[in-house]
Amino acid sequence: MRRLMTLSLATSLAVLGTGACSNFLSSDKVRLDPNNPSQATADQLFVAVQAGQFAQQEGIIALVGCMWLQQCTGTSNFLSTLEKYNIASEDTPSAAFSSIYEGGGLVDVRQVEAALTARGDKQYLGIAQIWEVLDIAVAADIYGDVPYREAVSNATTPHLDPQAQVYADLQGLLDQAITNLGGTGPGPGILDLVYQGNTSKWIDAANTIKARLFMHTVETPTGFDAGALNNAITYGLKGIKSPANDLNSVHTTNPGEDNLWFQFYARSGFGQYVVAGQNLADLMVARNDTFRLRRYFGPANPGPGYGGQGLPPANTTSPAGVSSLTGLRNRPDFGQPIVTYVENELILAEAYFRLGQTANAQTHFDNARATVPGLGAKTIATVSDIMEEKYIALYQNIEVWNDYKRTCYPAITAYPTTTFGNKVPGRLYYGTTEENVNSNIPNRNVQNQSGGNVVTPPPANPGFRNPNDPNPC
């Protein structure tokens, strides 16, 4: 798991993570030793972890999810290939698996945690543990059964842990983090790029993450698990209380420290090949959701208004034409939302609604809509009303893909593929580097039939998806 992966120029531009770490580490705030020691300090590694996690949350997985869920559309080059789910021959997403463990991933965060444990700084440790959860949650969400308990050890071929076990371990780690955040220690201060060491905000964020992960375990072959829904409510009620307390990535206008979507559009050479998705653009136009349209997209060509490009092979376009990804949030210093108040409120709305508590669901649904200027009152009729809000609000966020696997919203027409049964793929392939060196990783033919579920029994209707996705869309 410690092997570093060398990326080609095209891949690194797509993943957009490698440079971010080194640029953040060049900051005067963390270049602490004038003698340039070969061993990074815990503080330096902590900044690298944050930069690595910003890159992971904004990188290739988010881009793939944006295209596959038709929030945006790839029109040419390798992006058109990825748009059509061709992830076997086009291996661009492969590096995302390595980044979970390396380059600001699990290896680094565990070193930080060990140093902070020795230092006795529980508050700082709690924050580092939350970053570990966010990192490994992506692994479980996107790959299912993954190396975790043996991932940072002497094991040269770490075993895959069952997805459900990984989720349970992460819930336990979040409990530890919340306890530690209430403990002693000076904390990281300004080295915490998100909340500057504010433990109350981190505790709220940890509770929202707990609610999110419980929602990732609610789906069963025959319905939804009431216990998991109630757990999501319990922690959602303790979650992020205001949009001002959202967990956002942090960027500057310095090259290498800027927003990865901006880097992709402005400097990679490939940004022009991703445009607004017709599914999302037309939905927002129909709702007169102009406040967010201006933030997400540029004016359509030829216009007037906003629009998007449809999925191949139909390649339809909106009446106004196609918008680029040049909205008001396409700035170098835009902080990409990772875990937010609106997500928390809509988790509560969905969980309450599925449990038949419609009045409570409506309250939290209204709270989420109240954050968007111009949206009027709306009564929830079905779960799709809630998921529509979430689909729009979580634009460019990995969580949209997780929501789709659970709810089958939006009802999109997938690109036809024999390999994936004419469905939107439910996961990605394990990274090729790990496949080549770890005999516990199943080959791609096995993954095509039962996901990565060589540890967890495959779903009743097997296919390219994970154990928490028993009912394919």
List the helices and strands and how they pair.
Layout lengths: L8 H7 L2 H8 L16 H17 L1 H9 L3 E3 L2 H7 L11 H7 L4 H14 L2 H22 L19 H19 L17 H17 L3 E2 L2 E2 L1 H11 L10 E2 L11 H8 L6 E3 L1 H9 L3 H7 L4 E2 L18 E2 L14 E3 L1 H14 L3 H12 L13 H11 L5 H9 L24 H6 L6 H7 L23
Antiparallel strand pairs: 1-5, 2-3, 4-8, 6-7
Percent of sequence in beta strands = under 5%
Q: Which strand order does the major sheet show? A: 1-5
Largest sheet: 2 strands, antiparallel
Average per-residue pLDDT, rounded, comes to 89
Q: What would you call the quaternary organization?
A: single chain
What is the straight-line distance between the termini?
33 Å
**Structural class computed from helices and strand pairing:** mainly alpha
Coarse shape: globular
Give the low-confidence spans.
1-38
Number of strands: 8
DSSP summary: helix tally: 20
Q: What is the H/E order?
A: HHHHEHHHHHHEEHEHEHHEEEHHHHHH
Rg estimate, integer Å: 21 Å
Helicity, as a percent range: 40-55%
